[in-house]
Every structure is written in C-alpha cells, then in structure tokens.
Amino acid sequence: MEIRIGITNSGRELSFESAQTATEIEQTISDALGSDKSYFTLTDDKGRLYIVPSAGLAYVEIGSEETRRIGFVG
C-alpha cells in the first residue's frame, strides 16, 4: 500500500510503502484526529516507524493495492 502524507509548512511530502491495509491506516489516522493525541505512527514495509504530527497534517493519500503486471498489455 502506497501512502503519501503532506505536512503543513513543508515543501516535501512523506511517501512510503506499507503492509497495512487501507482500512487500518484510515482507522489509525481517524483515531489520532478524533482524540487529544498530538501524533500518530505508521510503519513501512521495511519496519521503519514514522511519527507524524496530527496538528500539521495537510493531507493523506492512500494508494490502492494493485498487483504488478508482467508482460505486455494490449
């Protein structure tokens, strides 16, 4: 699952691949935004932990799970 996160006052976005499902990611972010937590955490495919400030969140783009195609498509 590809995740792209925009943070306010930052010219760059955070982009990584995660083994979590779209539903799990959405629930994690929703819980953080609906509570008093000032951050939420996500983990990428390689086990790296990302701590994202809830207050600075501009957008979150969750990509679809797509299998890679091999060969020619006609």
Can you describe this structure?
This protein has one helix at 22-34, and strands at residues 2-7, 13-17, 39-43, 49-53, 57-62. With 74 residues, it is α+β, with helices and mostly antiparallel strands. It has a single domain (2-62), classed as Roll (SH3 type barrels), CATH 2.30.30. Strand 1 (2-7) and strand 2 form a beta hairpin. The two termini are 26 Å apart.
Summarize the SSE layout with pairings:
Blueprint: E1 2-7, E2 13-17, H1 22-34, E3 39-43, E4 49-53, E5 57-62
Antiparallel strand pairs: 1-2, 1-5, 3-4
Describe the structure in brief:
With 74 residues, this protein is α+β, with helices and mostly antiparallel strands.
- Average pLDDT level: 87
Which ranges are low-confidence, i.e. pLDDT below 50, for 5 or more consecutive residues? none
The number of distinct helices, counting runs of at least 4 residues, comes to: 1
Number of domains: 1
CATH class: Mainly Beta
How would a crystallographer describe the biggest sheet? 3 strands, antiparallel
Strand content: 35-45%
Short key terms for the protein model shown above:
1 helix; DUF3107 domain-containing protein; 74 residues; single chain; DUF3107; SH3 type barrels; 36% strand; alpha+beta; 3-stranded antiparallel sheet; two-stranded antiparallel sheet
